[in-house]
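Handoff note, outgoing to incoming analyst
You'll be picking up this chain. Sequence as last confirmed:
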Amino acid sequence: MTFFQALRMNLEMNWSGLFKREESDCHAIKAAFGFLCGMGTATITRVICFHNEQQRDWTAMYDFFSKSPWKEQELFNQVVPRLKEKGYVRGKYIRMAWDDTGVPRSGRKIDSAGWMRDPMGPPFHVNLVWGQRYLQGSVLIPLYEQDGESSPRSIPTRFVEVPWVKKPGKGAGEEKLAEYKEAKKKHRLSLAGLEEFKKVRKQFDEQGMEDKIIIHATDASYMNKTTLAGDGEELERAVLLGRTRKDACLCFRAPEGGRRFYAKEKFTPEAVAKDESIPWRQANIFHGGKYREVEYKELSGVLWQRAGKRRRLRLLVTRPVAYRKTKKGRKYYRERAYLLCTDETIPAEELLQTYFDRWQIEYNHRDEKDVLGVGQAQVWSAESVRRVPTFIVACYSWMLVTALEQYGSRREEALYEPLPLWRKNAKRPSCRDMIDVLRREIFEDEHDWGSKLQSEADARAMCLTSAA
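Most recent structure output, in case you need it:
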């Protein structure tokens, strides 16, 4: 079975029943391959031209995203069960990485868009970009547990828009300003993340994974009083793990017998790192293509009065890891990492490995924006604006799952195109490698490919897509 056949079968099998009409099923499969394999800007127009249907009525494809009754988050429902069935999700824990990302847009009349900080801007000057804000959750697959060499892979399972709240104009009354302030409190990223944590737990329970404990790995922006001291107590069979500031004011519980709950003595994570009375421990962590010894310090029963209130937390401090840019070059050191966790029983090595693997979600963001063109579709309907980016990410997710099923975790030269001269020792296939395989199979058997998708696509139409 070819990669194209396996991906098409996965999409048809796992998306069956999500669309009420048979025509919508066909549009979904055609749009999936159009966005994945099409050349040029990732717009719906080029998806239509990719299938050589530019001389037909094009409104059906636009209506699929703007009018057809389907829920975009359901496209991810079977990703984790499929990975579990194939043996990629096993053990007691399910590791998930969470992060928000901005999808740049050019249209100024998109209601859910707003100004946000450009993460690629220099640290000494804040740049702003106009776009949508999404919250992404990806399940972390520890492929290194199979062969000791393969890097972990993160596969998206949630991609939810968190819209901005429009600020009223200068002439707005006090009532409008009060409504704006209340709405702003309800549309925070931390609240959206907390809601997604609960939805993921409920979904896994319905899919027969009640015994799994979810480790939610986040960055520092999600470690606040909303998630730690507020509704965070309601998280069932889930652990929150995230970075914290080096100058966070922490303490222990005051001695029993008095009225005081928090101890008078305060300390910071940076002070713990410099405290010689606390010994460094060692953990064997996979990072950078092999297992490495990482030193860390650990404190349990920590209280964060400002954010965590009376919730007991666990502090982990990692010593900077040395690395060289060349074999004989000088040593450089990464910065310390200060982590807080809401669980005191999970082994520290498990938490540290999850934190190191969390970086894989940044590769997801790069593939989604640079390779697949998430956010490039020129749509204005409120439904389409929200759905199209999520649809593309879902197609990307299923492509990663299919590649693991068909070819495994290693990048075999016989299966993928030869690497460019400037790339060496690539041990796992990239997103571009998978897309190249799909395009190669289209060229080799273009007529059979078009008939299976019920389209008039051919190799020439695919090449001309970039000129549409």
